Amino acid sequence: MSNNKYKILIVEDESNIRSFIKTILEAKGYQVLDSKNGAQGKMMFSSYYPDLIILDLGLPDIDGTEFIKEIRQSHKVPIIVLSARTQEKDKVQALDLGANDYVTKPFGTEELLARVRAALRNSIHGKETEDGQMAFSLRDLMIDYESRLVTMNREPVKLTQTEYNIVALLSENAGKVMTYSAIIQAIWGVSDRGSIKKLQVNMANIRKKLGIKPGANPYISNELGVGYRMYNE
Ligand code: CA
Predict the structure, then answer these.
(1) C-alpha of residue 209 to centroid of ligand 1, in Å
(2) DSSP string of 187-230?
(3) Cα–ligand 1 centroid distance for 206 (angstroms)
(4) How far is the CA of 14 from the centre of ligand 1 (A)?
């Protein structure tokens, strides 16, 4: 297995979920470190510097969002957050604090593995590590950041300035869920009551112009109630 070089740290207090995740990751050849609370998780992080952290938000000793804040002060390691349905607000906060992705409990094996692969790929091939990268491509979609030109199947896509800015922002963060408020902040600077509606209207136009049919060949996923994600494969 070529995954062997990746070390993944699980921080989760529920032992059955912790061992479930450990089992499926080890079966795929990942090295797994597991901890049952925030303090132990932090200790393991600074001893082993894992390539990825899977973090439960509801920990017995510290809030998962606090954990993210501390890690993000000095590290870019990808963080996937595990949250319960009752923690919707925390999930959004976690993403705004710098978590890369989230998985809602209960989750399936394939879903978790896909998120893990995407987060690892992003940290290695993402824009952050390739400064100076001036173009983005995803299947038939190409974005040239210098000329601000978007093409689909080599045909130019006519986007408004705002639509282009949204597409460019999502592509620069491909693989990562961007919350509504993060997008609104980046595009318009301020948010008001109409901001989400304005964003949704722009997204609907973008999808139409890119020729994305509902459910088919998605370049951008709509994370209901949370935000949007440009795929990175
Ligand atoms: Ca928990």
Answers:
(1) 42
(2) HHSS--TTHHHHHHHHHHHHHHHTTPPTTSS-SEEEETTTEEEE
(3) 38
(4) 6
105 Cβ contact partners less than 8 Å away, ≥ 6 residues apart: 17, 82, 83, 84, 85
Q: Which H/E stretch holds residue 136?
A: strand 135-138
CA separation for the pair 175, 149 (Å, rounded): 21
**Residue 98 in contact with residue 68, Cβ under 8 Å?**
yes
When pLDDT is averaged across residues 150-170 and rounded to a whole number, the result is 93
Task: For residue 123, count CB atoms less than 10 angstroms from its CB and return exposed for 0-12, middle for 13-18, buried for 19 or more.
Answer: middle
- Please tell me the distance between residue 12's alpha carbon and the centre of ligand 1 in angstroms: 6
For 213, the token pair is: 């049919």
Confidence bin at 178 (pLDDT 50/70/90):
very high
Calculate how far, in angstroms, residue 57's C-alpha sits from the geometric centre of ligand 1.
6
Q: Which amino acid is at 127?
A: K
In sequence order, what are the beta bridge partners of 143? 136, 150
Residue 13 confidence (pLDDT): 97
CA of 59 to the centre of ligand 1 (A): 5
